[in-house]
Structures are given as C-alpha cells and as structure tokens.
Input
Amino acid sequence: MALKVDYVAREVGSNLRRNVTLTLASVITVFVSLALVGVAFLTRTGVQNATQRWQGGVEFIVFMQPAASEDQISAVQEALDESPQVDSVDFIDQQEAYEEFTDLFADSPEMIQSVTPEILPPSFRVEPTDKDVDVIRALGSEFESKPGVKQVVFAAEAIRTLQDFSRLLSLGLFSGALVLLGAAVLLILNAIRMAMFARRREIEVMKLVGATNWFIRVPFMVEGLVQGLVGALLAIPAVIGIINFIESKLTDTETINLFQGFAVHSSEQFGVAILLLVVGCLVGVIGSFVAVTRFLDV
Amino acid sequence: MIKLENVTKIYKNDVVALREANADIQKGEFVFLVGPSGSGKSTFIRLLNHEEQPDRGRIFVAGKDIGKLSHWKVPYLRRNIGCVFQDFKLLPNKTVAQNVAFALEVIGRPKHVVRTQVPAILELVGLAHKAKNMPNELSGGEQQRVSIARAFVNRPLILLADEPTGNLDPSTSVGIMRLLDRINRTGTTVVMCTHDAGIVDTMRRRVIELDHGTIVRDQDRGVYG
Output
C-alpha cells in the first residue's frame, strides 16, 4: 500500500506540536549525548594525530640526516636489529615521513607546500624490550653518535600522560554518552507513547476500518526518527565548534609544545558528523519502534 | 457470508461469552442479535471482526476461515466489514466529511475516490448539508448517521451494528433503522445487536437470541421475545 508522504508529514507535524515539551526533552537528550560522543571521538582522534609517531609503545626515535647515505642508514638499522634490548624497529623513509606530515597538516596547505620529501629526515621508531627510563636513555644515546644520525628523541613522559588522559577522557565521555543515549531512547519511547495516547481515537478508528499496521505505525516511527535526527543535527555543529575551539586554544599556546600537532582534519569531522546522524536516527527509530510494537496492539 | 461452527469463547475470569454457538448467515440477510446484557452479543460481533479470537470452533467470513488468517491480513478482512457502535466513535476534531473521508484515506484509497464517494455517501444518509459541521454540532441521530456513512463508504460486504440505537430516542431510532434497511437492500449483510423490542417487532427479520453465551433461539421473521 502506498503511504502518502503528505499524510505522514501532516501526522508527524501535528504530533510533534501537540507534544512540544516531551519532544524537546527527547531532542535535547539526543543532542547532549551525541555531542558527548562526537567530542569524545574527535579529542581522541586529535590526540592520536598529535602523538601519531608515538603509537604502539615507541619509546625513542632515531632521526637520520636527510642527506644520510644508504650505508649509514643500513648501519644504524643493523645496529638496532642486533641490539638485544630492542623489541622492534620501524623504519620511516622520507616518502612516509612526508605522507605523515601532509596528514598532520592537512588543514594548512601552506605548510605542506613549504616541504618536500627530500628535506624531511628518515627515522627509526624503536620499541625497546625494557621500558625503564634510564635503560632507554642509555640505549638511545648509543645511537646519537653514529654517523648520519641527526638526533635521538625520547618519548616524553608527557606524551604517555597525554595518551592515558585522552583514553580516560574519551572512555568517560563515551560511558556518559551511552547512559544518555539510553535515556534518549526511553524518552523517545515515552514521547511516542504519549502521541499514541493522544491519538487513540484515531488509532481505534483506523484499526476498525482496516488500516494496515504499518500505515498506523509509520507516522509514529517517523516522529521518533525526526526527534533523533534533529538532536543529531544540533549536535554536529556543536561538536565541530567545541573541537575547533579546543584546537585553537591548544595550538595557540606556545608553552604546550605537545599539543602543537593537535588537529582534527575536516574529513575526520565529516566522518564523525555522519556517525552522529546515523546514531541519532537509530536512537529515534529504536525508541519509536519499541513504542509502536509494545503499545500498539493491532 | 458468515458461519459459526461450535464457537466457544471464555474470558480470563471464566465468564463464558459464547458456548458452542452455531449460526449460518447468508449474504444479504438482516439479523438481529438479542438477549440481556452479558449474553454474548458483543462478543459475537467482536469475533466476526477479529477483535477477539474464539477458544474453540471456527468462524467463516466471506468463505474464509478467519481463525487461519495471518496477522497482517486482518486489516483486509476489516475492509469488508463496516462497524457501527452505540457511542458513534467519531473523531471530534474532524468535520463530518473529514470523518467519513478518514475511513477511505487510511486504507489508501486515492484522492479522486474520496472526493466522489464522501459526498455520495453523505447524500445517502441525508447529511450532505452538514458535511462541514463538527460532530458536536450534530444531534445523536445525525452523529449515528455519520458513523454509518463512515462504516458504509467503502461498500463493505457486511455491516455490524452494536446497539446503534442504544443512545437514541424512539423516533430517531426509526430513521436509523430505515437507513440500515436501505443499506441491507443494496445486498449488504447486516448483523445488529439490540435491546429495542419495538424495532425488532416492527422489522420482523431473523432473530438470534443469546442467553449466557448460548444461542437459545434462531428464528426467521422473529420478534424480540
């Protein structure tokens, strides 16, 4: 049977207006919970981007001269491979370094233009077997004097702290968001239930004259969908605003060098926006679906 | 058109609404269901409409065993059955015409059908001039006419009426009965529950009498009691 779009739109519109307070409550809850989800996602992404080279237990990086010869590079590689204290080594050549750089500064093309792969140093990312700070220092320093080595950089305590903090922060935000999403589902369920109660006469007549179940249900489900969707549409600009604000605050401060790389690319923002839309719609549809199946005994 | 075979319906509190009921109603018949309150008249009607299911026995409507009907087909059964109630069940926020149109719209009838059928049926029930009125501006008899118009606008095979004159005065009731008689003459099978002895005695149609869920009388051209 053809469900008429204008019929559904009219029904949904009048239901939403009739139930303004409850609708607002659901929309706001969806909005806040999705905003938390979005901020959690993007801070984690931002921190990951900022500390990209320090992922996976990398404790120090041996930067070679950009002009280091093949021999010099393979000599360092051998030395690292042979050292019993080294767990794993990851060689980043100039091209890879360049790709990482363009990733990191995807939002500032002028930075990328000023750099070519040739001027970037190739590097070894080293994961030592022993995580003790003194041992790592001693091990790293051995390579500082090797020919062709430009610099050895150690993972700052701060980077670890930052990674832990961001993990905890996003975990906290996610759990909060999860609870709120649950509340949003329940609120939407209730809003739809109220809407159905307000329309019980219509529903009774519809059943009586032989309207199909889906004909009766669809307007209510669309109502739930709209509530979730509106919440998501509010959450997206809020999340992007918050993230850009954090980003500008962090990168402006010269003192906190660590956050210099904190950046969330527009493609990542777009991805999160899509995610929020999908989750918002899901919350709305789930809430209203439960409502129509539980409370609309046809 | 309607056939009950050994139909028994017992409610949860052990009230027997129907016990081993058998009835065979032909197409185009006009049947009165009579009996005291709680004798099972309403259950009879609700079973035909698939609002309730029998505990035992089989019910055929238009040749189909409605006990075997899958869930999603029930609405299509109901499109063949018009229902009229004592309390009209009109939507108070819609006009007379909108109330009637609603019944067509929600089963997906196209707009041009609604535009032609609604005025035609309002003409039939004699309320064309009140099409734009709200239900609360109408008398009880007029409201019942609207409700009959809504039940009949889709031209169902069967019209079920549960005490349609229960809230109306005798002279208004006569008008409603004339209307139901007219609908019956178009070939529609009419089953009507009633307490109104006067109506049953004047019409002299088939009477099925129920008492405590048992059919105690099934008589052609019968009287009330």
In short: The mean pLDDT of chain B is 93. Residues 170-185 of chain B form the longest helix (16 residues). The interface with chain A takes residues 49, 71-72, 74-81, 83, 89, 91-92, 102-103, 105-108, 150-151, 154 of chain B (CB under 8 Å). The helical segments of chain B are 41-48, 74-78, 96-105, 111-124, 140-152, 170-185, 197-203.
